[in-house]
Amino acid sequence: MLLAAQEAAAPSAPWILDNIWVIPALPTLSFLLILFFGKKMPFKGAEFGLATVGVAFVLACVAAVSWIGYEPDVAHVDGSEDTDTHAEEEGDHEEGLILPASVSGEQALPATDAPEGEGGEEGHHASPEPVVNTIDWWSNGGVQFTVGTMVDGLSVMMLFVVSLISLLVHVYSTDYVHDDVRYTHFFAFLSLFTASMLFFVVSANTLQMIVGWELVGVCSFALIGHWWEEKPNSDAALKAFLTNRVGDMGLLIGMIVLFFASGETFSIIEINSLANAGVTSHNMLLLASVCLMAAVMSKSGQFALHTWLPDAMAGPTPVSALIHAATMVVAGVYLIARLYGVFFEGLSIAGSSINLMAMIGATTVIIGGLLAFVQNDIKKVLAYSTISQLGYMVLALGMGAWTAAMFHLFTHAFFKACLFLGSGSVSHAVHHSFDMKKDMGGLRKYMPHTFATFMIGSVALAGIPPLAGFWSKDEILVGAGSWPGTDGNGNYHLMLIMGMAGAALTAAYMTRCVYLTFFGEYRGHGTPHESGPRIIIPLWILAAFAFFAGLLNLPKGVAKLVDEDLALQFEHWFEPTGVAYFPEIAHAHPSLTLAAVSSLIALGGGVVAWVYYFKRVDALEGSQTELPNGLTTTIPPLRAGHTFLVNKYYLDHLYTDVIAAGTKGPVAQMANTFNQKVLDGVVDGAAKTAVAVGQGVYDHIDQGVVDRAINASGAGSSEAGGVLRRIQSGKIQQYATLMFGAAVVLAVVLVVAL
Question: Helices 153-176 & 317-325, crossing angle to 10 degrees?
Fold first, then answer.
């Protein structure tokens, strides 16, 4: 095996950090085992997935603990000869620039003497350099291509989240798809999906990231279209695949720009380090950032390339949970976080009030929240909610609040997986329907466990204290730096307002979702029932994380009430600080007034929806789900706005009926006309000309000249033969006379000549 020969990063690194490749290798092995032996196994291959992902989760926990306690016993980088080697070899870089030794496959030395308070946080200590292991792959044109792993706080956090969510989804799926005709196929791709994401997060260079990025896309295509017999499912898979290919053009161009702008290197550490040091051209960083944002927009469902994500709900619910909580859609957010030096410098995030990333994120927060209001499919409500929450993460990164974005990714994974799996549990009870208006209502009486866990996930998503979503969302709002006393990386006033509006929308649409699903009268048929333990236990585990995960990054003021050592634990464990490959960012100070105001705004949105549904709609007779004379039916502008939302801003119409249909219709007709009239005309004309020329050559040259010359030569030969036949009579006397005459002629010639 190629990785078996990898070079050790450092003697002091724990074994799991040096051999992190084992974690993505396990679900890859599961994929192969299920593929070849799954159908012959007692549980049709599911046991392979459960075992390998379970071991991967345990190893991810070991890796996280090892990283948190990792303090390599080596000297600090001081400009010594060893650490200067790489910089001296890079003749195109500025003189004296010292890059981490890990760039060249060696263990970098940790920056342990970072000044106190660096990064805007008093007493914020430097983190160790990442553990990097690389081996040479091939060399071409003087460029050495390597493959390997990179482990730091961001990596181990993602390994924990992805492996945990995947393990719970595997357990859940054994019940949810137990009678599926392609049960083995499902678990095979579930394992490969997990392996692809794990490979992506431990990649040491941008080439590997591209490979992991595309593998995630291919697996999502297979899983979204798992029930391909129904055309909407296969259409949804194709839509997801093709929409992501649009963004992938930006990914490839951006990575190529970074390769050449950074001195022909694919190393993530070196690309970031050069960007942070000011060596890479700002224009090139800006160009690369804009191109890479196109990839983020498609993969992470940012406006206006988000349209594939709600349609992807056509896939099995466990797949929806895995996609929305821990894998595909967070890949774009992870890409920004991993190449943050490029984006931070390229988009000039520090000291700004607006930039492309922040604007895209803030817009996505609002458009996702508004669209969630008008959905009747419970999974599509959650899908648009995911779009909105991904917008929060991109918004935070665009404002320089890196830790807030990653913390929200962390907490969101738990409560969104809980909600998606909860929606699947509900669907199981109502004969596999997801329509809240037609087939749900009043389910809290029949499904107490599903109801309780769904409520916890909803409150956490709405950002209501003290659940996890409150702490991470509040940290994002603080990161805007525009609230008095917060002092972030800039003054993002508009972004703060849009973030608060998104909080109100979130609470409101989740209140509607909870009412239509669990309150009022049951509108389905039959008698609903609670799900089995393989569905309920994962829900309670996720609900527990949704409740308590926010305590991992308590602000200092709050932590003092409990234990000061609990303050900002997530930030200290997982944010790279005092290292060359991560920019120096300011950490905004928490604000009690901002937390109170944002919480009141969220509660206000929930209260408005509560009054509408729990009071006014619930008071109606029968099983009404909306007011028959609501504002959207009586006020024309609101009715037009509602129609605009129901049609999803007409983006699907633009993409499908204008762009795609235009390509298949008029453009295709024009191409066909050009082919028939122009190309075929040229070919047919050339053929007719060739036939005419050939006929002319045959008639006038072949028949008139060549054949006549040959016939004439034949006739001449025949005449000459006749003359010769008369001479050759066979009479000796005649031959003697001719010879005597020839001798006389020859004698005369000789006499005259001499």
Answer: 170
Task: Say whether both 565 and 672 belong to one domain.
Answer: no
Copy the structure tokens of residue 738: 């001719």
674, 696, 718 - which closes a domain = 696
User: Other C-beta atoms within 10 Å of 281: how many?
Assistant: 15
Count of domains for the chain = 2
Cα 457 to chain centroid, rounded: 25
What is the spatial distance between Cα 99 and Cα 59, in angstroms, rounded to a whole number?
A: 30
Same domain, 552 and 664: no
Shared domain check, 652 and 634: no
In a domain, 565, yes or no: yes
**Nearest CA to 296 among 381, 204, 213?**
213
Alpha helices in 38-79 (DSSP H): 46-68
Structural domain contains residue 185: no
Q: What percent of the chain has pLDDT over 90?
A: 62
**b/e per residue, 590-614, with b = 16+ CB within 10 A?**
bbeebbeebbebbbebbbebbebbb
Question: What is the spatial distance between Cα 679 and Cα 581, in angstroms, rounded to a whole number?
Answer: 55
Instruction: State pTM to two decimals.
Output: 0.84
Q: What is the largest CA-CA distance in the chain?
A: 150
Neighbour count for residue 710 (Cβ, 10 Å): 10
443, 483: one domain: yes
Q: Which of 696, 711, 730 is the last residue before a domain boundary?
A: 696
Whether residue 653 is found in the same domain as residue 554? no
First to last CA, the chain: 101
**Confidence band of 725 (pLDDT split at 50, 70, 90):** low
Q: Is residue 281 part of a domain?
A: no
Give me the residue label for tokens 């389910």. Answer: 443
DSSP 684-718: HHHHHHHHHHHHHIIIIIIIIIIHHHHHHHHHHHH
* Token pair recorded at residue 505: 């929308």
Q: Are 402 and 337 in contact (CB under 8 A)?
A: yes
Domain with 668, as residue range(s), is 647-696
Residues 588 and 479 sit within 8 Å (Cβ to Cβ): yes
Number of C-beta neighbours around residue 579 at 10 A: 23
Cα–chain center distance at 325? 13
Residues 539 and 582 in one domain: yes
Compute the distance between CA of residue 518 and CA of residue 384 in angstroms, rounded to an integer.
20
Residues 153/574, Cβ–Cβ less than 8 Å: yes
Distance separating alpha carbons of residues 699 and 708, to the nearest angstrom: 12
Going from the C-alpha of 317 to that of each of 321, 389, 534, 627, 659, the distances in angstroms are 6, 19, 14, 30, 30
What share of the chain has pLDDT > 70, as a percent?
Answer: 90
pLDDT in tens, 269-308: 999 999 999 999 999 999 999 999 999 999 999 999 999 9
Residue 664 and residue 568 share a domain: no
8 A C-beta contact, residue 521 and residue 442: yes
The alpha-helical segments, DSSP class H, found in 177-230 are 183-201, 206-224
Which of 309, 26, 355, 358 lies closest to 162, judged by CA? 26
User: Distance between CA 352 and CA 348 in Å, rounded?
Assistant: 7
Clarify whether residues 680 and 571 are in a common domain. Answer: no
The answer to whether residue 431 sits within a structural domain is: yes
